[in-house]
Amino acid sequence: MNLTFFKMFHTIVQEGSFVKAAELLHMTPSAVSHAVSDAEAEIGFTLFNRNRNGVSMTEYAKTIYPLVIQMINGEESLQQTIDQLNGLERGVAKIGIFNSTCTNWMPEILERFKNEYPGIDVDIYEGGYDDVIKWIKDGTVDFGFLSSSCTTELYVEPLYKDPLICIVPPGFKTKTPGCITIDEMKDQSYVIQSAGSDSDVQVLIQKYGLKFKSNCHVLDDTSIMAMVACGRGISVMPTLTAKGLENGLQVLKIIPDEFRMIGLSALNKETLSPAAKALYDSICYYVRTVINNENVL
To answer: Which residues make Cβ contacts (< 8 Å) with residue 144, sequence separation at least 6?
Structure first.
């Protein structure tokens, strides 16, 4: 097997089909199938389960797939470095993001980056915290936005303190208008996000030993707002997440102040490709210089 096959292997995994992979690679499906069969004979185990719905990786293939991604990324990084030494600026930078950084920051970041580095393409992968962690670890992305509360395995370079706020229905009363204390948050019904997206809220709950009841577990931020609006409970979320979604709901400051810490994470910042390093540095500059408020670190 060689790098050409590993790229083919990766394309098959991404497309879930020999036929679709063949189209992208400008090959015949038969040629792709034969190449996979030859590789399986060489390594001694099956790489793909074949069925009428397409193909999927075997458990053996899942074990080696992160190493395949590392090899492909290594080749790209080598080529980018060579181009950089020759005075060229090209390449691909792949970033993992969660929803609130995507909607609030990425449009301007991408516009600024494209103006400065027109030869570098940016691939964006959006998901929850768990998705971004997985993508960083298996090499799908070069680095990603994370909250420091969501992982102990990866270092998260802190950039921004995002205040946690409480979202309540119209007419909800508190002792101090515009604010809610931890004691007032106890014994309430809550609308909460599914696992993998709400680690910041879980940290708050555990920190203060909050006991609450919830029969409303949702995934989407707009669904949270809709459920709060119809009286299913209150919710806690970061300020960036709530921005633009309030729609008449009350946004209350939590007393005492609580934050999530947003930052960037990579397996090894020092080994990022030139294109990825340029994007990483551009994001740090944007948050620390362009946003430039009391929450920037």
So the answer is: 95, 96, 97, 125, 132, 133, 135, 136, 264, 265, 266
Residue 103 CA from chain centroid, whole number: 13
236: Cβ–Cβ under 8 A, 6 or more apart, which residues?
164, 165, 166, 167, 185, 190, 201, 204, 254
The most distant pair of C-alpha atoms in the chain lies apart, rounded to whole Å, by: 72
Domains of the chain: 3-62 (1.10.10.10), 65-158+262-291 (3.40.190.10), 161-259 (3.40.190.290)
Per-residue pLDDT of the chain (297 residues; tens, 9 = 90+): 788 888 899 999 989 999 999 998 888 888 899 899 999 899 899 999 988 888 999 999 999 999 888 888 888 888 888 877 666 578 899 999 999 999 999 999 999 999 999 989 999 999 989 999 999 998 899 999 999 988 888 999 999 999 999 999 988 999 999 999 999 998 888 888 765 557 888 888 888 887 767 777 777 888 888 999 988 889 998 999 888 887 889 999 999 999 999 999 999 898 888 899 999 999 999 999 988 777 887
Nearest to 197 by CA among 103, 95, 100, 296: 100
Q: The dihedral of CA 213, 216, 219, 220: what is its sign?
A: negative
Q: How far apart are CA 47 and CA 123, in angstroms?
A: 27
